[in-house]
Model the fold of this input.
Amino acid sequence: MLVTLDSLESGSDRTCDLAIVGGGAAGLSLALGLAGTGFAIVLAEAGEEGFEAWHQSFYAGSSVGDLPLDPELTRLRQLGGSTNHWGGRSRPLDADTLAARPWLGLPAWPLEAGELHRHLDAACRLLEIDRPPGEAWDAPADGDSAAQRLGGPTLEPALWRFSPPTQMGERWRAELAAMPDLTLLLDATLVDIELAPSLDRIAWLELMSRSGKTLRLRPRITVLAMGGIENARLLLACNRQLEAGIGNGHDQVGRHFMGHPIFEPLQLSLAADASLPDLLHDRVTPRDGHIEGLLHLNRTGQELLEATAIDAAFYSDGQFGPPGFRAARRLQRKLGRGQIDASLISDGGEMLGDLPGLVHESLVKLGWLAPEAGRLTVSTLLEQCPDPASRITLDQARDPFGRPRARVDWRLGEIDRRTIRRFARHLADHLAASGLGRALLAPWVTDETLPFPPHGNSAHHMGATRMSRSPRQGVVDGDCRVHAMKDLYIAGSSVFPTSGSQHPTFNLVMLSLRLADHLTHRLGHA
Done:
């Protein structure tokens, strides 16, 4: 059943087995994973089915770190959440990412990779990823002899597979509405959590609509699936009974915030008789669907360079195009959402300042102009090393319901800088030795006194309610239950203790399906 909160009686109480707060990739995957269990579920989505500027305004916040991030632009407050603007790139976290990495002091995840990968096929179905049944994820890379030759002891070819991309709210709306035991509640913002006197259980959740109608929800179990920034903001803001916020007895909520900053540290001039392996091109194949290859710094390489994971992909003019083209894309997104602010002026100036780049890239994208032959830009996607100083806190400004807005302090640490620079030099040497061509390193790579350039924002929000074995090192346990609470769980990429170099959406869907299994068992035995 799909209803709006306004259609219910204001001030009413309602009980349920499970409340899921948030209708993005995590919340919808969790609900779909619980289909047929017979539990009474309420899924509360703060937004509506489509984009509404008023709802979106709740996501405005401040950005104070050395990695700029617009909290409003990088998220969507509507059914389906950020799957309404994601690119579809997908790749599962591997065992190496979840394992301990002693050269960085990183402990292992409190779960095994196999526990995630049991849900790989189901995640492919939910995200409509075209993958032959039972095929190993990197099978096309393993079968590409040219790509394998380009690899080596420290670098290995790997694969992105692509969702169409699936907008989960639109794609799965009918199935969710038809679930007999699910109430999908729209325009229902969680504004407060009342704890029981023991302070380790939830007494009720207060939901409010745009018009001010309220609903008091009394679930047996609650799952916050509000996004990588919002999960932390909500826990911190619910501080009437616990001064530091819910689940924050050890000052861990909001810390270790990570993204996937993208930098382009080198260019490659191909040798006269050389060409990239087919795998490293973005292409659609009859058998494997939409795929694109990359070179991944494996565990051996990470230990050698004392680095985190990092990937390299090859493009004619960078992954996002020249500065003018990137500015034009930002303008298009902002104007499409009715966002009118001072950033439009700076984006417009950058676009006009690089008209040649804008025109050239537009003609290439339209297929009217061939990319520059023999010259490629290497785009790198970085796994950030978790840093407790990179964090989400509460701002002084308030949202329309009077709750503090998010303040994002996203930082690029010394290990991050070291990883990018060492990897760029290592890859340049490797490409030269392979005979593929000559690499030209960016000045900020070779001269470490120079500042890093602006990053390409991946809009991946991870780590602010991280998973840990001990409450002193994180917020949730290996089952995504908040350490300090008996009946509160968190779903989504905010629980990732490390990010890997894999995009988060596919992995948070797998993790949400794993949580569905756990909650099925727990509710069935309660």
